[in-house]
Amino acid sequence: MTRRQTPMSAVDRSWLRMECPENPMMISAVLVFDQPIALKRLKRTLDERFLTFRRFRQRVVTEGDRTYWQDDPLFHIDNHIHVLALPGDGGKQELQTLTSDLTSTSLDFRRPLWQIHYIENYQGGCVLLVRIHHCIADGISLVRVLLSLTDNSPEPRLSRVSTSSQSKTHAPQGLRQLASRALHNGQTAIDQAGLFLKSIRNEPGYPFKLATTAGNIAVDLLKLGLSPAEPDTCLKTPLSGRKHVAWADPLSLAEVKVCARALRGTANDVLLCAAAGALQRHFLATGEATPECGVRVAVPFNLRPMRQPIETLGNQFGLVLVTLPVEETDPIMRFRQVQENMNRLKRSYQAQVTYSLLDLFGRGPDVLERRALSMLSNKASAVLTNVPGPKEPVYLAGAKLTQPMFWVPQSGNIGIGLSIFSYAGTVQFGITIDKNIKADPASVMGHFRDSFAELLDAALHNSEQNTARAAS
């Protein structure tokens, strides 16, 4: 291993090996700005803040059964920034078509795995369409990285983002690397043993609690493996690899919070319930029988401390399988079931189990990972992400960000990605869907808004009734 190579972690390698023609493993973002951005200033901002993260200057190399990050000797920012223009007076439909084409296309593995397409003349401003491979980092990290390029005012003072030693490290060689690893492992073992003995002294029942936790993890692993496959619906079909992307006009975050308070739940519960209602309306509109036991979506669950420095990249999240009660016609009852399902998952170890499985698969042979991936992807019909963004508008190189959208990739035979992102008092909702799946993305967007409106009306009516009962 050369001095300029860094071993890829097992979890990141697992995401790298999920790449396939049907599902490129890219996290994609569409960032709409209110005015054009000067290319020179954009490149300067990227150099000052984005390229400080060394991963974006490194390509992936494989030597035998090992995978490394290696500095790209031919790196140049112009290889990663491309200028495009929409045809004619291109609007939202043309932008969605272009986004669909690009998200269906894999990145160039000869170079660092990211691309930015600068789209000119969109609604008086511009658009940045960003694609970054999942092996570099998880969606939450990359959203934070992209937001680190922005400022709270149009006229910032550019300054470099300091990066941690992990981002900058040159991999040690030979005996130095072996000694460092042995010292680290030995110290970790000593620290863990000390913590264990201290816990026993302070809490005599600690070994029993530890054994109980281990048992609960084993039970969650067994439940995950034995859970039935998804019902045979139009949402599960052989994939073509061609994506359709669409997004809705934003919802009011204040209205979402009003709905959540009225139902004594969370904004996340409200949005998941709206997604369940959207899928129910899709089944009704297409005439297909609604699954009697709901459909499951894979939801990324962050395992990274939110205060952990932004420069720490890599993947630190697990997946939980959330059942959406699409068979429930009453919006309040649908909400209660979503709320109950989420509360149960929060008490489980499913996210930690799936993260450990990804770590295990990344260390084993490729065939093992693909078989396990096939098994797990049969247990979900879609991937759904819900990421909180800035509460106030942000600016990039002087231009105001007016609408951001993010999508994480799907894996295996999952062909639908649902994205929820809150920003500056709004909630953005988008979808990416394989062309072979018989669902119109624009219609699903309408279903989501209608489902939320139905839930909000029911929640306010229910709250008024409760208030009247309390007063009588």
From TrEMBL:
What ranges does the record list as Polar residues composition bias? 160-170
As recorded in UniProt, its EC number(s) are 2.3.1.20
Q: Which GO terms describe its molecular function?
A: acyltransferase activity
What keywords tag this UniProt record? Acyltransferase, Glycerol metabolism, Lipid biosynthesis, Lipid metabolism, Transferase
Location of the O-acyltransferase WSD1 C-terminal domain: 314-455
The protein's matches in PANTHER family, at most eight in alphabetical order, are given as: O-ACYLTRANSFERASE (WSD1-LIKE) FAMILY PROTEIN, WAX ESTER SYNTHASE_DIACYLGLYCEROL ACYLTRANSFERASE 4-RELATED
Q: Which domain of life is it from?
A: Bacteria
Question: What reaction(s) does this enzyme catalyze?
Answer: an acyl-CoA + a 1,2-diacyl-sn-glycerol = a triacyl-sn-glycerol + CoA
EC main class here is transferase
Q: Which SUPFAM superfamilies match?
A: CoA-dependent acyltransferases (SSF52777)
Where does the record place the O-acyltransferase WSD1-like N-terminal domain? 8-270
Q: Where is the segment annotated Disordered?
A: 154-174
Q: Which residues form a coiled coil?
A: none
Could you say which protein family the record assigns here?
Belongs to the long-chain O-acyltransferase family.
Pathway membership, UniProt = Glycerolipid metabolism; triacylglycerol biosynthesis; Lipid metabolism
Name of protein? diacylglycerol O-acyltransferase
A UniProt-annotated Pfam family:
WS_DGAT_C
